[in-house]
Amino acid sequence: MPIVTLITDFGVRDPYVAMMKGIMLCVNPEIRCIDITHEIDVGDIESASFLLLKSFECFPEGSVHLTVVDPTVGSDRRAIFTRFQNHFFVGPDNGVLTTVLSETYLIKKRAGPDPKTFEGRDVFAPVAAHLATGEELNRLGERIFDPVRIDFPEPNITKSNIIGEIIYIDHFGNLISNIKEDMLPPKNIEIEICGEKLKGLHKNYVEGKDKGLLALINGGFGLLEVALYKGSAALYISCKKGEKIVVRRKDE
Asked: In this structure, what is the dihedral angle of CA atoms 165, 45, 103, 77, given to the nearest 10 degrees?
């Protein structure tokens, strides 16, 4: 069964997501549409690209991943699709596909009126459906070699500390950083974020309840995150995406 996943900032109040699914089902009623999320903050290309990277590997090879977060809608930005690790990715050429860019194609325009305001329905959904159905790539697009990329922050690692950044905040208020566990010193570390300090790496969320309010966890994305047991770390310390997180080596 062909699979198409969806990431958008459309929310679920309006019919926009359903309209895209309907167009895909008109192309192939066998397509299985799976929602990853439609609650991306409006125009937050970085978060959409991050979640796309972290989610696509959970699906079978050959799946198509449709991502529409597009503050540039209506402009002259291009519409593209790309093939990466035997998956297909469809979306606007505004950097939202940065994390999966590889063999990239410019979507060929169809005959008829040039859509401007709802390309998710009129351009991206049909192409995603045809890719899922096995359409030849060259019939849907032509190769390009200059897709738009956005920069993602990398931790600054020195002998004495690691300066990272909060790159995503999930529904629970967990603060996901761009620091991996294998970057940490082997022991005796102190973490500072938004003026709060905490010590050491915890094994899980529950362990944190006995060792202070905030806990540093190796989370489900494979990145270090700051969590609050039965609460929102983001609200507790008024932390937003982009805040710095510092890991220091403590002398014994």
From this structure: -140
181 and 84: one domain? Answer: no
> 115, 144, 173: which is the final residue of a domain?
144
Question: 237: which 2 tokens?
Answer: 């310390």
Among 229, 246, 247, 228, smallest CA distance to 237 is for 228
Query: From CA 199, how far away is CA 212, in angstroms rounded?
Result: 9
Q: Among the three residues 122, 144, 166, which one is the final residue of a domain in this structure?
A: 144
| Segment 82-111, tens digit of pLDDT | 999 999 999 999 999 999 999 999 999 765
Burial 103-137 (b: 16+ CB within 10 A, else e): ebbbbeeeeeeebeebbbbbbbbbbbbbbbeeeee
Render pLDDT for 141-154 as a digit per residue (tens, 0 to 9).
Answer: 999 999 999 999 99
Total tally of structural domains belonging to the chain: 2
Give me the amino acid identity at 133.
Answer: T
